[in-house]
Design a protein that fits this description.
This protein has 419 residues and is of the alpha/beta class. It contains ten helices and 21 strands. Bound molecules: 5'-O-[hydroxy(phenylacetyl)phosphoryl]adenosine.
Length: 419
């Protein structure tokens, strides 16, 4: 594997040096030429790439192939302004299907499955990425795209859907829709596995999905900048996600000093693509916080694994000096029976310090206007929050179903500090 990675790394560096002026300049500034990459460890000499670099070179500035050799574009909208754009050659698309086929096989999905894809089809990489992977393994694909929730449930029932592909937050919403339609997800549907991804899925969220749907849950990771889903996938044994190391070279760095950290230490994931033709990327700073685990997995696979993403460094809130990730809030909510996993964190400035309010939906069975009971639930959440995260904040309990649902990625943090 290491020999293959080195060969592919050398080819990638040579390709971007030749074809992408941005990278040639960045390498020259470091006094590097492709032949200076002699070992895998030399990757740490290479320049980083950031989301801003992709924005600055919008739309085609980082492409290593002329458009006539690019057969597909995808992009991610981000929060503001123009999307970032990535291209795929024919070979890249074949590779992408292979990468997804691995993720899908790990999730135990195959020709006997009817798979409903509830990721958006379009510029977002989720829909098409999973679609071609599913066809490659021979699953029967229902390309539903996201939204239209009642129809999703109806088709699940009519088509005998066994695998659901969506964001975890949308899957949580769909189960509510099924219940509202009078359908018992465990008895009336044939669903047995969920391939989730596109946003963090904490262990608490995973347990909730497992319990509510009665299915096996897998968490799968990827990002547009390096090609979309397929970077790593979950074998279902709960020991992290297997990275396709022959396509992606993963490093963990300290996000402040940019120093490379040893296996096992938590930091920012950095990815170098090893086989991309249209959009190769050197050392992409994902902003996602995780750790790498080199030990072979109990499933038998020997590839490097990454732990569940704990959050994004730019999602991380600092509340009175304590780092807080939305995933930690999920751990807290999972402990409190009276509340659902639907929540929103609202951050404001009070004087010079940050103030955090967490809006949490009550479980329908606990919905009451008994003030004392509500106060008790609030106190309970605050107690767990103090123990698990070590922060104090304001808890606002809201009625069931009142927070916004999205068919794609949930928006957990509303940061009003700069407004
Ligand atoms: O979300 C690609 C994807 C689609 C992955 C479908 C898996 C399934 P972007 O829209 O560019 O691409 O968003 C990438 O989403 O940097 C993470 O912060 C987050 N993310 C994606 N998957 C996971 C996951 C797709 N399984 C950004 N766990 C990434 C945690 C995830 N975060």
């Amino acid at each position: 594997m290491e020999a293959l990675q080195l060969q592919r790394l050398q080819e990638t560096v040579a390709r971007v040096y030749r074809q992408v002026p941005f990278y040639r300049k960045a390498l020259e500034e470091k006094g590097l030429r492709p032949e200076d990459i002699k070992t895998l460890a030399d990757v740490s000499k290479l320049p980083f790439t950031t989301k801003q670099d992709l924005r600055d070179n919008y739309p085609y500035g980082l492409f290593a192939l002329p458009l006539k050799d690019v057969v597909r574009l995808h992009g991610s909208s981000g929060t503001t302004g123009k999307p970032i754009v990535v291209g795929y050659s024919r070979q890249d698309l074949d590779d992408w299907s292979e990468l997804l086929a691995r993720v899908i096989t790990q999730a135990t999905v195959g020709p006997e499955d009817v798979t409903q894809i509830a990721f958006g089809y379009g510029l977002f990489t989720g829909g098409f990425g999973l679609h071609y992977g599913m066809e490659k393994v021979g699953s029967t694909v229902v390309p539903m795209s996201s939204g239209n929730s009642e129809k999703q449930i109806m088709l699940m029932q009519d088509f005998g859907t066994t695998a659901l592909v969506s964001t975890p937050s949308y899957a949580l919403h769909l189960v509510e829709v099924a219940q509202k339609m009078g359908i018992d997800p465990k008895k009336d549907l044939s669903l047995r596995v969920g391939l989730f991804g596109g946003e963090p899925c904490s262990q608490g969220m995973e347990a909730a999905l497992q319990e509510l749907w009665g299915i096996r849950v897998t968490d799968n990771y990827g990002l547009t900048e390096v090609g979309g889903p397929g970077v790593s996938g979950d074998c279902g044994l709960g020991e992290g996600q297997h990275i396709s190391e022959d396509f992606y070279l993963a490093e963990i760095i300290d996000p402040d000093t940019c120093e490379v950290l040893p296996y096992g230490e938590e930091g920012e994931l950095v990815i170098t693509t090893l086989r991309k033709e249209a959009c190769p990327v050197l050392r992409y700073r994902t902003r996602d916080i995780t750790r790498l685990m080199p030990e072979p997995c109990s499933c038998g696979r020997t590839t490097l694994r990454m732990k569940k993403i704990r959050g994004r460094s730019d999602d991380m809130l600092i509340i009175k000096g304590v780092n807080v990730f939305p995933s930690q809030i999920e751990v807290v909510l999972a402990e409190v029976a009276a509340v659902a996993m639907h929540y929103q964190m609202v951050v404001t400035k009070e004087g010079y310090s940050d103030a955090l309010e967490i809006k949490v939906e009550l479980e329908p069975a606990y919905f009451t206007d008994d003030w004392r009971q509500l106060k008790e639930i609030e106190k309970n959440i605050l107690r767990v929050l103090k123990r698990v995260v070590g922060i104090e904040c304001k808890i606002t309990l809201v009625s069931p179903q009142s927070l916004e649902r999205t068919a794609g990625k949930a928006k957990r943090v509303l940061d009003l500090r700069n407004n």
